[in-house]
Amino acid sequence: MRYVVWGLLLILVVLHQSGIAIDSTKLLFGFLPEGLAFHIGISLAAGVTWFLATRFAWPIDETTANESAESPAGSEQP
Amino acid sequence: MTQLIIVGIYLALLLALGLFSSRLFRGTSQDYMLASHSIGPVLLLMSLFGTTMTGFALVGSTGKSFEQGIGVYGMLASSSGIVHSLCFFLFGVKLWSLGKQHGYTTQIQFFRDRLESDKIGLVLFPVLVILVITYLLIGVLAAGLTVNGVTRHAFPQIFSEEVFHGGVPPQLASLVICAVVLVYVFLGGMRGTAWANALQTGVFMVLGVVTFFVISSKLGGLQAASEAVLQHHPEKFTSSGIDRTVFLTFLLIPLSVGMFPHVFQHWLTARSASSFKLSVVAHPIFIMIVWVPCILVGTWATSVQIDGKFMFPPDFNANAVLPVMVGKLSTPLLGGLLTAGILAAIMSSLDSQFLCIGTMFTEDIAVHYGGKDRYSDQQIVKMARMFIIGVVAVTYILSLFDPPHIFDLGVWCFSGFTALVPLVAAALYWKRLTKAGGYACIIAAITSWSILFWKSGFAADDTFTVDIDLFQNTYKTLPVATMLLCSTIAMVVVSLFTKPPSQATLEKFFPE
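Above: the input entities. Below: the structure tokens describing the complete assembly.
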């Protein structure tokens, strides 16, 4: 699943750069330019992808991180 | 006058919040600088978002879309939704863990340990301060222009029509805003700053959406406003005017968030690693909520007509588009509220930056080189405040000179931070990064930034690009690509040719 998440992110970046609707002056709902609507879609998709990332590809082990963070290291405070 | 009263009430509310949070102050520098690592997911999201959304996001984006159209959203908003969360995800969580484990308060403390270099602060500190001053300048300029823009022609007897358009002078407004932010940061420290950021983020998001609907209503509704653009400036609804390789290199700009010292400090305030999850997920959506209205308002501004004449001629000062739209297209009461919303966005970044530079000075310079037991906690807090006042004074003086476009100044500032991102990425993920490699990265980043910034006339040339001739084609790139390339190559090459870090350091930062 971790690889799927990173794959989705890569697809998002490619779509972001794809130039879809770049020259379109068509308005969606009568007011929203198609090119802007496409990038709003990218933003929403980014939210969904990052949700999946926090569920399936979280970068650190939660328990270990919190335990090690609680360990006495104040003495190392510069 | 009504607008000024409302803004005054809002500023008083912020001061009251600072006073209230000062009552919860635990009296230690750790509490003042990091709120004792007590910030939960919602407050972390609001404070991180408020910190990253500046005058650049509201005033700058509206002005730039007035000039270039809707393509500005793709250039920086949708890309930031992907890249900012990536930085929180890859850097923020790990740095929080290391920071809490080893007691770091600032970036330099982390790099000092990771690079095994006591003197790294002497190189990195001035570089970060220079870049933060550029960042502060965006907020200070935007605050002054906003107040001046919405009060135009309100005080013709007091302030010159010719120079200030009869409104509150931007220099005066900037001074007042700086003073208010300084006071509530001094009173509340990081806890007050986080709370003020959360309040202000809520204020500017809600009022931003209100602004959008009020302005569109005055323009005859959403459809009428957009149809006017189609009729007069249809090119503003396309991105065809934006060079594709420039658009590609814009993707590098949001990486800067990975090296913002104030964002690093906010990361360390988190209560737990899982506190980051909400920020990672919601950040792209929050950016969309703030940027879409600004981009549409800026684009609509190109085609607004009053008595058959365009309200904003093409050479109109882009920095003033949003404030003037708010001032002219709303009632005084609503205009005051909307102005407070814009100022909220600006102040929610200034406060974190003020606090952060004070922390950096005391922790990385004064205490580290002066001696740990030399100063009491109260003396440390006092020193931080003195340094902050000094930096704000320098920034304010710089703001008195003829300012460039806020958007372009922002891009230059972010480019400098992006050029330093290889350092944090390598420190966390590349065992072979060495002390000399770290120095090489910083020196290459600031040298390339300084040279290119100077060549652009200090952001005066808003079309400045680094052009690459390849296969009989010329590819335009933003200067950030060159800076990033220079700092990365310098770091990698020097690291590979110098002594690797000690085993103890590797075990500390890369435990099995």
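Note for the figure: Residues 2-58 of chain A form one domain.
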